[in-house]
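ugh ok fine here u go
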Amino acid sequence: MNSQRAYPKSFSFELFPPKTEAAELALKNTVEQLRQINPSYCSVTFGAGGSTREKTFETVVNIQDDMGIACAPHISCIASTHSHIREMLDAYKDRGIKRIVALRGDMPSGMLTTGELRYANELVAFIRQETGKYFHIEVAGYPEVHPQAANAEKDLLNFKRKVEAGADSVVTQYFYNAESYFRFIDDCEKQGIDIPIVPGIMPITNYTQLARFSELCGADIPRWIRKRLEFFGDDRASIRAFGVDVVSTLCRRLLEQGAPGLHFYTLNQAEATLAIWKNISEMENSPAC
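structure:
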């Protein structure tokens, strides 16, 4: 963890584009509440195949221009062409966006080919080729191994390719076992990878939803957590209280051991993230103290 201790702490959060006017108003309220964590930036997700691309651009511009919070749009290479990505990069540059989250993305249902770019390292290299050092490029990391990777060793080598292509920093997939993150950092250090690797944090508020997400992305829910959540059944208040306690403990340990910040997957909700933030703010020398 020595490589990570050298970096200043960065706290940030992820949002997804709203689909209705009511959702837009709710999202604005969420962002206003999340100002309390003094975010370095917020990221906005991006649907492959055009499902939310335009809304991503609109959301990013509105948050940065109207709310004064730096925004980082997700860009996926799946189903994209060089010319379309070039247009997006130019549009974001024109609006003063300085940060990009570069991802491979998920293959839309029914699609047989990925497009002109196949992997995230190719997307990172293309952004660097087109824009030089203009953008701060964030990529994804998988402490518990990408669900489509053949094995952990190949996954680490694929990750290293993204870094070598020009990534500036990393946000990980969420996890609930701190040891998986610590081991991932150790493996990265052995590979000579030395950029900020910020843990992704998923608050626990809905067990059914969490189980579905985790199955898709390969994130492990430890058995002791699953059994407690199953016991609570439909008691959402108990699930939320337990989730805040568990995730706060995880965040404390990560920060104490040298993690360079936290990135919250908010699902456009502020309450659980703020409750966790309040708990970790009580740590000695925490950014909120």
